[in-house]
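Aim 2 progress update. The chain analyzed this quarter is reproduced below.
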Amino acid sequence: MSHVPVVLGLDFGGTKIAASACDLTGTRLASATISSDGQLGAQASFDRGIEAAKRLLDSAAPGRALAAVGVSTFGIPFDDRVELAPAIDGWGELPMGRALRAAFPGARVRMTTDAKAAARAEARWGALTGCDPALFLNLGTGLAAGIVIGGEVLAGGDGAAGEIGYNLRAIADVGLALDQRTPLEDMVSGQALTRRAAGLQPGGTSAGAVFQAGQDDHRLAGLVTDFINELAYHVVNLAICLNPVRIAVGGGIVRSWDRIRPGLQRALSAGVPFPPELVVARFPYDAPLLGAVALAVDAARGAGPPDDAPRHTNNLRRVMP
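Predicted structure tokens:
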């Protein structure tokens, strides 16, 4: 029996939870994916993920020590809470860091947002390798971006760099608090598209099904066009600001890339002084999990902040690598 330590990557999503047990180089030993079951509440969903991860470790690496755990999540994780995490009720109140260290005693724990984890994976192993600066666009249940500069993912003063889901949508939004306006994510995300389509196609459907049905249903076609145009508006402005070499797009909605890409490409070509290359991410559906693995590998090697770094702070740069 091998006693070489292993690491764990864990990705908490709005609809699914994924885990991967890896060796210290990041080579995958085994993976598992389960439903988030967010309707059961934040604690139940979190506990499901922890239990699935422990089962995975027991089967893939029995008897081997766990050196580090890397975690990606929707929202911005802190030791005692998760900021900006509306996808599952109560997720914001989870003491994420404390709960993870209690679940995996002795292991180093590193946390980040899902979009930043995905950007890390793409910058290290994927479509953004060697691109400086670069942008990862996460089109999934929610909407966010990861900004890569010098090969590193930009955290921001409070860990919120790239949280474009909170963008203003119109001049009329200026000066309004979040609860007085409609943020971008409530119009441009998988969750938003599904909700908006429900009024036109009773019975419920997925975002992918909306894109597919939009080829034959003029009402859904209009919804898809509005979705792409509004997304393009914000991506163009972001590209003008950052002047990225390349934009890589990932997340579940990339399954409809043939419908999304033409509108995005036209907008970037027409509106950006120096248009970036637009590509599908190398890891379109599991980049957040791979980014979590990268965090764990770095932690196991001693990279990043020490385990006793301050964890009760609004300055996420002191909490995240």
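The mean pLDDT is 90. DSSP finds eight helices and twelve strands in the chain. These observations will guide the mutagenesis experiments scheduled for the next reporting period.
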